[in-house]
Amino acid sequence: MSRPRRAPSIRGRLLGYLLLPLVLLLVASVWADHRTYVTPLYNAFDRALSHTVLAIAAHLTRGPDGQVHLEKPDSGIPPMPPNSTAPPPPSDPLGEHDKPPLRFEYGNRPSLWTHLFPGGRESFLYRVNLPDGQAVAGDQGLPIARGGGGNGFSYNDAVYKQLPLRIVSYHTQVSGQPVIVSVGETMHRRDRAVRRLDTLIGLSDGIQLLLVLGVCLFGITVALRPINRLGERIAHRQPQSLQPLPVAPVPSEVRPLVQSLNTLLGTVRNAAQAQQHFLTNAAHQLRTPLSGLKAQLEVLAGETRDGAQQERIARLHDSVDRLAHTANQLLALARAEPSAHSPGDFTEVQLEALIGTVADSMLDRAIARNIDLGAECEPAHVHGVLWLLHELLINLLDNAIRHTPEDGRITLRCGLHGGAPYLEVEDNGPGIPISERERVRERFYRAAGSDGQSSGLGLAIVEEIARSHHARFEILDARVGTGARMRVAFPSEGMKEQVLTA
Q1: Cβ distance 420 to 489 under 8 Å?
Q2: Which of 58, 104, 232, 311 makes a 20 to 30 Å CA pair with 216?
């Protein structure tokens, strides 16, 4: 059997609707930041590379033979061998600064310049040639950057010896002789810097996304608090409470739903009231003709001397009594429903006083059957509807009298058990089998051995009244000997406030 699919929550839907746009925004932000920062970064690398070109150009001289030479360093470092590459430190384009020495390193070959980038091992290839292509110094196969550029510089990307290079070429003159100085730098350092930059951008934007999601989640949680409070208020309402829900603190988006619920509650309340009015009127209308019928039967019994007629009249009298009793119990059952009374009907009821009142009203019936009716009361009170609890105890005692043999014993009890108040009616009759203890609570069910006078509603009324008071109705064995013990356990002191809810 497949489990029912859980309905998505409003919080989950809102987060889902926000997450996709935020992720798309994150991707767009990373791309925009990449475009914003990478171009200036490449320009900075190009400027550094142009400084290297100027440093080489600053070491070019024209000898007595009219040929251009790369000047020997003054620092005592061996002169630069052919096909070597080693850019000196950046020098002033006008050659006004002192010319720094050259250092070379290219793996095991002297063609990598490290003085511009201390600690680094990036490859810098250079080439010096005349406009006609005649080589002067450096790596003769290094491509020359084509295209126009500002201040005599040209920039190009190229692949040389299977290495991607960024090449800058500088067109200048050495003592009137035009020369072209080209320097190529491998892309490793640029790629590494771009990767680091993209990582930082991704982390920064990702943290911002998480913060935005956290703020959104907090905002959604705060915004949904009125709806959650409304749900809790509805969940804790008692079945008998049909009062309208407050509309003022409800958000405008949920207000139509609350107004619809209030309309439904009003309809149910009006229907319940109409039912109660009908039952009350019907009971009153039944009592009048039944009372008249009983009176006429009594007159007829007084005027008739025939024994057979007297017996028939007695049976009719009993039938009218049962009909009146059934009508009263039907009315009591309808009025015991939770929707039939409001929270304002609940008051503090002293159980020992209730037992005394009910015992006085039923004492004549007990004496007529020679039943010992006693009470064992301890101080106890409950929060309930007085007339309903009176009806509950009447039905329990009526049931006990019906099933207790003559010369039997019935005991009424009240008190506290574990801090919770309770009512008990115990008899020494035949008792109720365990298999039937649930069925006797049903309406119109008559247990085996009933006297035929019972309508089958007494214990159903007790069950309904107990439920409306959040009490538990239990059918137990008698404490001593045979019999039944009917027990109604009420909520403890800490649970009383739950009976009254708006």
Answers
A1: yes
A2: 232
Write down the residue that tokens 């730098």 correspond to. Answer: 185
**Cβ-count burial of 1 within 10 angstroms (0-12 exposed, 13-18 middle, 19+ buried)?**
exposed
Name the β-bridge partners of 411.
374, 426
User: Who's near 326: CB < 8 A, 6+ residues apart?
Assistant: 455, 457
Nearest CA to 243 among 255, 232, 234, 252? 234
| Residue 334 near residue 277, CB atoms below 8 Å | no
Confidence of residue 84 (pLDDT cuts 50, 70, 90): very low
Q: Nearest-CA neighbor of 86 among 60, 104, 109? A: 104
DSSP states along 206-250:
HHHHHHHHHHHHHHHHHHTHHHHHHHHHHHT--TT--PPPP-TTS
Angle between the 10-57 and 188-223 helix axes, to the nearest 10 degrees?
160
- Give me the numbers of helices (H) and strands (E) for the chain, helices first please: 8, 14
Residues 378/352, Cβ–Cβ less than 8 Å: yes
Assessment of whether the complete model's pTM goes beyond 0.85: no
Measured CA to CA, the distance from residue 93 to residue 404 in angstroms comes to 124
CA distance 71 to 90: 16
- DSSP structural state of residue 106: B
Q: Which of 339, 425, 348, 413 is nearest to 376 (CA)?
A: 413
| Cα angle: 424, vertex 427, 430; to 5 degrees | 130
H/E stretch holding 179 reads strand 177-186
- Give residue-wise pLDDT tens across range 16-33: 888 888 888 888 888 888
Q: If DSSP codes are grouped into helix, strand and coil, which group holds residue 94?
A: coil
Q: Which pairs with CB-CB distance under 8 Å and at least 24 residues apart come from 298-302?
A: none
At 179, give phi and psi (nearest 5°): -140, 160
**Nearest to 63, CA basis, from 177, 146, 216:** 177
- List the alpha helices (DSSP H) in 145-224: 188-223
**Residue range 168-215, pLDDT digits in tens:** 999 988 888 899 999 998 888 888 888 888 888 889 888 988 898 888
Q: Where are the alpha helices (DSSP H) in 408-491?
A: 458-468
Give the Cα separation of 424 and 413 in Å (integer).
5
Q: How far is Cα 89 from Cα 318, in angstroms, rounded to an integer?
A: 127
